[in-house]
């Protein structure tokens, strides 16, 4: 990597936890277009899973991932292990403050500390010029932008749009957990977001009413438990009561025991 940098070649980086799908590959294609060298990491980061979450169960298929990453022109696939990332004695964490406390941070209080820490380490190892993150994990994207600014990383963060299945379900490695009936219920997330967009486009401005309608829709499906549904400022992630300017609607819902997230823009 050092030699590549000396040759003044630009490096794009896509960090992932593997079990790659079209969403990941779309980010890799963006990286491929924007730099000379494309580096992808595959690492299921234990620091972002709390006890009782799905760290052990998280789907893994390294050979398939390597084939997929290579098929879109990845030059280097970085696959560190826990001994490398969290060697004995490790104790220094990067802890996002306010941005990490709401939304997913409420039910997953150590999650963004784990994400910010591993991304900091990966940035320091790979030292990319550009890093590409998915809008699918919107709060993460906002936190990474903040991290890069706060720690003077000098890395350009590029956001890739959410890639969806034909019926609208946001692609996720965790979709592999869903049984057939749960797969149908999982569709309620993107449906609720689309219905909310339609409400806003027809003139509804009251965030509370939009959230209530989305909640009704999602909970009308079996096996769904809403973790949160919010309408927030796209940069500060503060709650909005009125959708009178560009806003993000974001939600997290458990379908059975699988926690899914999704988000969309509201308004223009
Ligand atoms: P993960 O492997 O889930 O940690 O995700 C790695 C990267 O892929 C993150 O930047 C995610 O936001 C992004 N990503 C995951 N799912 C999608 C999707 N459906 N569309 C676009 N990007 C995604």
Topology:
Blueprint: H1 2-6, E1 11-16, H2 22-34, E2 37-42, H3 62-71, E3 76-78, H4 82-85, H5 104-107, H6 111-126, E4 130-134, H7 138-150, E5 156-160, H8 180-201, H9 207-219, E6 224-232, E7 247-255, E8 258-266
Parallel strand pairs: 1-2, 1-4, 2-3, 4-5
Antiparallel strand pairs: 6-7, 7-8
Bound molecules: adenosine monophosphate (AMP).
Q: Strand-residue fraction?
A: 15-25%
What's the helical proportion of residues? 25-40%
* Structural class estimated from helices and strands: alpha/beta
How are helices and strands ordered from N to C?
HEHEHEHHHEHEHHEEE
The major β-sheet equals: 5 strands, parallel
Question: Can you tell me the CATH topology of the largest domain?
Answer: Rossmann fold
Give an account of the 3D structure.
The protein contains 9 helices and 8 strands. It has 268 residues and is of the alpha/beta class. The strands form 2 sheets. It has a 5-stranded parallel sheet with strand order 3-2-1-4-5, with helices on both faces. It has a 3-stranded antiparallel sheet with strand order 6-7-8, covered by helices on one side.
